[in-house]
# Entry
Amino acid sequence: MIGQRIPDITFKTRTEDKYGNFIWKDVTTCDYFKGKSVILFSLPGAFTPTCSTYQLPNFEKMYADFSLSGIDEIYCMSVNDAFVMNAWCKDQGVSKVKVIPDGNAEFTEGVGFSTTFKNRGFGQRSWRYSAVIIDEIIEKEFVEPGMTEDSDPDPFEVSDAETMLEYLKENK
# Structure
């Protein structure tokens, strides 16, 4: 999908208003990606071991390095609802990386990374990948090998923060 525009999707998010109340808010891919240099990484699920131990924390920890490499935002996406994504963010102490709930898997299907993990009781999920997206166009993807339905194991070899930072340092 390198060189292609990302799908036009509206995400159902929960955000805190100025009174401290959480409200539903529709946010589009245009809102997230237009006019920005973005890292998007997607993973099978919030609160899962690899995602919680390595992938999300390392992107959060290395946020300043990514900013110095010209990245405006880092987004973490999963086929989970807004309640789960927000709770996971809070649990992980994440404040710099922003989470995007793809509860209906529309974006995930649109970029061709929809799979299932029925063997683990997950149902439809996203395959693990990371990407650089510049103004809604996919510049680079790091896709974990072996994408099949009910894949076992769940590889984590190329979609990590370190690989992404190395790419940016060599190519920006």
